[in-house]
Amino acid sequence: MDERSNRWLLPPLLALLFLLIVYQYVWPACPGAACPRRPPGSAARRGGGPAERQEEEEEAAALPRLAAKFPFARGELCRRVRFDMRGRDVIVFLHIQKTGGTTFGRHLVRNIHLEQPCYCRAGQKKCACHRPGGDKDTWLFSRFSTGWSCGLHADWTELTSCVPAAMERRGCAGNRTLR
Predict the structure, then answer these.
(1) What's this model's pTM, rounded to 2 decimal places?
(2) What is the full DSSP assignment across 67-84?
């Protein structure tokens, strides 16, 4: 084959490749009758009759109900915890990878409006989060305030055994209470 025939073949091959990509990733996954029905209540939104609503409710009842994976009681979810920043309380931030933890940790040290906000120097990753009226004692134990004091991405078990000793090394001996 010479170079002219290669040049003529390229545009149709690229167009075919584009159509395959569009078909694979953009086209609806379930055309026609193969699509699952809408959940009950959608018939009322689109103006379906009572027979159609009853049919959809029967189909929904036939599907197995998913059990709650973490069935927390409402009292546990809505409880209020008093945090005494001036006292001995410390927030220990458990960083879980790929959950937005880095962004949230940064917000903890940079964007919370406090009586004495964390002091962050330009170009530094760690910020000093001292208690109001104090120079040494910190109220936050996180990657952005104390660094990786308990190791990279320490889990709950590592943190519960490491935090008291790390706080003592930092000169915060009164912070022995863990919650």
Answers:
(1) 0.55
(2) PPSS---HHHHH------
Residue with the bigger pLDDT between 176 and 125: it is: 125
> Helix, strand or coil for residue 170?
coil
Cβ neighbours of 150 (radius 10 Å): 20
pLDDT higher than 90, residue 92:
yes
Do you know the residue count of the chain?
A: 179
Q: Which residues contact 49 (CB under 8 A, 6 or more apart)?
A: 43
- The pLDDT-based confidence of 76 (bands split at 50, 70, 90) is confident
Q: Is 153 a catalytic residue?
A: yes
Phi, then psi, of 145 in degrees rounded to 5: -115, -40
- Name the active-site residue from 107, 113, 130, 153: 153
Distant-in-sequence, close-in-space partners of 53: CB < 8 Å, separation ≥ 6: 40, 43, 44
Q: What are the tokens at 54?
A: 């009853």
Exposure letters 92-123 (e unless 16+ CB within 10 A, then b): bbebeeeeebeeebbebbeeeeeeeebebeee
**Tokens 């004692």 -> residue:** 137
Residue type, 171: G
The mean pLDDT value for 145-157 works out to 90
CB half-sphere exposure, 101, CA atoms < 13 A: 13
pLDDT (0 to 100) of residue 75: 85
